[in-house]
Amino acid sequence: MATDTVTPTPHATGKPTEARHATAETASRTTVKVRALSREFDGRGVLHDINFDIRDGEFVALLGRSGSGKSTLLRILARLDDEYTGTVQAPKRPAVAFQDSRLLPWKKVLANVMLGLPTRGVDGTETRARAEEMLAEVGLTDHAKAWPKTLSGGEAQRASLARALVRRPELLLMDEPFGALDALTRLRMHQLLRTLRQRHRPALLLVTHDIDEAILLADRVLVLTDGVLSLDLDIPFPVVGRRRRPGFTELRDRLLEELGVADDDR
Ligand SMILES: Nc1ncnc2c1ncn2[C@@H]1O[C@H](COP(=O)(O)OP(=O)(O)OP(=O)(O)O)[C@@H](O)[C@H]1O
Ligand SMILES: [Mg+2]
Questions:
Q1: Whose CA is nearest to atom 5 of ligand 1?
Q2: 30 with 69: CB under 8 angstroms?
Q3: Which ligand 1 atom lies nearest to the CA of residue 224?
Q4: Range of 109's domain?
């Protein structure tokens, strides 16, 4: 597996950082390995001694109340933040998708998807063909020449997914990607994500506030409570028809409890 080792840059202060991306274990079947990870902002601890793995192709949902540290953790895995302590082993170039699609407004949809591909090593024709193929997979062929501002929220997120997956990443990190969509569009995005996942098989970390989304999509759910990983639970259901499985409601209740939602709120 092409997991890379990266030497972290020193802190802006010039102090040597304790952060490091560890050497990949060649025999390992894990895409992500996090050990004793902690992060402070101005002396305030936000992540405390986090340990977990994500196996190749595994879909992990990360739940937690607002401010519990989910985005902080995701940003570290995405290599957008290296001022942590502990070790993080992860692919060098994970794909990342956010709530806001972050399409470049001055590039048309196809050109935005092409941005997901490396410029070196792939010639122009091949880049275009791969981007077109990926746009077809997310059902946006007809919008290839559209400007991002003309897309609906759901279409913009589909374009963002196409850009993220076009280079077939080993790891896809998503921070509340469907949070701004209406309920119906969100359900359609779930279906699309399931299909894309089956086809491309990246390891996936999905940050979400939506417990149902987590149970319906993921293989495993992690819960962060005030910066501590308080729950790490396998979802024991097959992919199809989860909502109707015996035990669905109990699992939902267990997660609500872990997130500190009182009975009265249900
Ligand atoms: N750059 C920063 N500087 C200072 N504090 C920060 C910074 N980034 C995050 N924090 C703090 O870290 C804590 C965790 O933030 P984070 O964004 O990870 O939470 P979250 O779980 O993603 O919340 P939400 O569900 O609202 O998105 C918060 O208290 C936040 O204020
Ligand atoms: Mg967040």
A1: 41
A2: no
A3: 21
A4: 103-168
